[in-house]
Design brief:
By secondary structure, this protein is of the alpha+beta class. It contains 4 helices and 21 strands. Strands 1, 15, 16, 17, 20 and 21 form a 6-stranded mixed sheet that branches. Strands 2-9-13-12-10-14 form a 6-stranded antiparallel barrel. A hairpin with a 2-residue loop joins strand 10 and strand 11. Helix 2 packs antiparallel against helix 3.
């Protein structure tokens, strides 16, 4: 009997221990969760914000010249290396000069003869004029001397013109670079006969170089259509394969018309290219600087979230999380420009997104503003 009573007592004690342990475990499991802490950004006053616009651009030469022969003859020598840089005036080809040299020498001799004839005709006219004045020469003789003198003067002018043409044609036997640039592949081999208009090679001007691109009409209206903002005030930077190009350029043309097919405006920037690093036809990224968004509100880029419904932020309102859809209108450094959805003084969450959800109470750990304070 005593042993049975002892067993009952031990059983009751064990059950009490189990119940106590279960009670503690139950309290631990259903303990009230801690309120998550977040950092927030306080939306500041609207202000003029510098905006960096980025577009795809294509490089284009500012000068592209097809060098052609200006006279007929045989190419006797080539003086340039294909693909190399040449300066304006550098000798590229020589066309056989013999015939043109002979014509030049003949034109010089013809001019000398014409000058000699003019000298004689002038003296004859002066002599006859004196005789005619004293009634010692007839009107016919006077008229003949005067006509011979005028003809001699005309012959001199004709001889000078022929000499000029002969000189030009002889100089055309030296084919020179009309611009500085990179030479292309030759079109004709030495030894071939060429005529006026035969294509010899192409020279492409490389420095400076253009970057042509299109600006969406919305960006033009929002940022650029400012009467005080001239294209030359817009600085431009190039990115090639993700790397910044070392020379800064500037916008030198923005069209006044919108292309209806693309809803964009054509634009062009010019960049120094002193070592011919940039190549015509190359696709690059261009950034425009010196453009401002008037009366804009900005928030840190890290505060902006994307979901299937669009762009949004989490805010703290009366101690609880609120989801707010917003519309973004460009970037400014590490900030997004907000077109609508926010106003001055509102608190936007910038961290701890995975621990918060709409309607949840949160504790604000730190409040920062545009100056990082």
């Amino acid at each position: 009997m005593k042993s049975i009573s002892k067993i009952i007592v031990l059983t009751i004690m064990a059950a009490a221990v189990v119940a106590y342990a279960a009670g503690k475990s139950h309290k631990k499991i259903f303990r009230k969760p801690q309120m998550p802490a977040v950092d927030v950004y306080r939306v500041g006053n609207p202000s003029d914000i510098p905006v960096m616009l980025k577009y795809t651009a294509r490089l284009k030469s500012i000068g592209d010249v097809e060098v052609t022969a200006r006279i007929a003859g045989t190419l006797i020598k080539k003086f340039y290396t294909e693909g190399a840089f040449v300066k304006k005036g550098d000798l590229l080809y020589r066309i056989e000069p013999d015939t043109y040299k002979a014509r030049l020498e003949k034109a010089r001799a013809d001019l000398q003869n014409a000058l000699a004839s003019l000298k004689k005709a002038k003296k004859d006219w002066q002599r006859v004029s004196i005789l005619y004045k004293h009634n010692n020469a007839s009107q016919k003789t006077m008229d003949s001397a005067s006509a011979a003198y005028e003809i001699a003067k005309a012959n001199v002018e004709g001889a000078r013109a022929n000499l000029k043409i002969a000189t030009i044609n002889y100089n055309y036997t030296y084919v020179r670079a009309p611009i500085s640039g990179i030479t292309g592949m030759k079109s004709v081999d030495v030894g071939n006969l060429v005529i006026n208009g035969t294509k010899l090679l192409r020279i492409t001007k490389m420095n400076p170089i253009y970057a042509e691109f299109s600006i969406p009409d919305t960006d033009v209206i929002r940022y650029i259509k400012d009467k005080s903002l001239k294209p030359s005030k817009i600085a431009a930077v190039l990115e090639i394969n993700g790397k910044k190009y070392g020379e800064q350029g500037y916008v030198n043309f923005i069209d006044e018309l919108i292309d209806r097919r693309t809803s964009s405006v054509k634009a062009r920037a010019v960049f120094p290219n002193p070592v011919n690093y940039l190549m015509p036809g190359e696709f690059v990224r261009i950034k425009l600087e010196g453009v401002y968004r008037k009366n804009a509100i900005v928030i840190p880029q890290r505060a902006v979230l994307q979901n299937p419904m669009g762009t949004m932020v989490f805010m703290v309102d009366k101690g609880k999380v609120q989801a707010r859809p917003i519309k973004i209108g460009g970037t400014s450094g590490h900030y997004f420009v907000v077109e609508n959805g926010l106003k001055k003084g509102e608190l936007v969450i910038v961290d701890n997104f995975f621990r918060v959800r709409p309607g949840m109470p949160v504790k604000i750990d730190k409040i920062i503003d545009a100056k990082g304070r």
